[in-house]
Design a protein that fits this description.
CATH architecture of one domain: 6 Propeller
CATH class of one domain: Mainly Beta
CATH topology of one domain: Neuraminidase
Largest sheet: 4 strands, antiparallel
Strand content: 35-45%
CATH superfamily of one domain: TolB, C-terminal domain
Distance between the termini: 34 Å
Number of helices: 0
Shape: globular
Radius of gyration: 21 Å
């Protein structure tokens, strides 16, 4: 699955809430923002806008919270961007990784070469757990807990999908395909794109229609997804 940014966007950090079917990312383009969408990139929502560049992102799956950092502070909000508050607001230099595990929020400061943690609920009990940690770029927290009842888990045969199973916010699922494959009418099976002739252009999935090459970049959309008018040279 490829999620494309809008004009002027520069996506950076990515975090997932697979149980809710949400994808979060930061945008460091024209505006510094935290955004959310479904796992297929649809139904985008701006969670927060910041004056300073957003440097890291982490999801608290147990309590449905999203944490993000800037140069001066670490903030948290619910999955819609509401009830925002600041967790840490001092002695931060260059936060480049965030992770949530249990009752604690962990972060990595590249300039100070530290890994610190704080109580994620109160912002108290701050402590450095590792020092002189150089050359790290990110931080990940891993548990051994597995959710056997996940809608895309083995008990549901991965949602009946042949390739990608995407959980949706209300407990349902949707099948998708890796780039280069198309989803059949059964909405579960993926297969290769049909081969169009040398004088034809292949439209994007899911239609994968074949149109004459002369229709490519002619100023009129002939593919259902308008892919025949994407990436065309600009006239000057």
């Amino acid at each position: 699955v490829v999620v494309r940014g809008a004009n002027g966007e520069k996506p950076r950090n990515i975090a997932l809430h697979p149980d809710k079917g949400f994808l979060f990312w930061t945008d460091v383009g024209v505006k510094s923002r935290v955004l959310r969408s479904r796992l297929d990139g649809q139904k985008r929502l701006v969670i927060a806008e910041e004056k300073d560049q957003v440097t890291a992102l982490a999801v608290d799956k147990d309590h449905d919270l999203i944490f993000w950092s800037t140069k001066q502070r670490i903030n948290v909000a619910d999955l819609t961007g509401k009830n925002m508050r600041t967790v840490v607001s001092s002695q931060l230099s260059q936060v480049s990784g965030l992770a949530v595990l249990g009752d604690y929020l962990y972060w990595m400061d590249k300039d100070q070469q530290l890994i610190e943690r704080v109580d994620k609920n109160t912002g108290l009990s701050r402590e450095a757990i590792m020092s002189k940690v150089a050359h790290l770029t990110d931080l990940v927290a891993i548990t051994n807990i597995k959710n056997a009842n996940h809608p895309c888990g083995p008990l549901t045969n991965h949602g009946g999908c042949t390739h990608l199973c995407l959980p949706l916010p209300h407990g349902s699922t949707e099948c998708s395909c890796p780039q280069g494959l198309i989803l059949h009418e059964d909405r579960a099976t993926c297969s290769a794109l049909p081969a169009c002739g040398v004088d034809h252009f292949t439209c994007g999935a899911p239609s994968a229609d074949c149109i004459p090459s002369a229709w490519r970049c002619d100023g009129q959309s002939d593919c259902p997804d308008s892919s025949d008018e994407m990436g065309c040279p600009e006239c000057t």
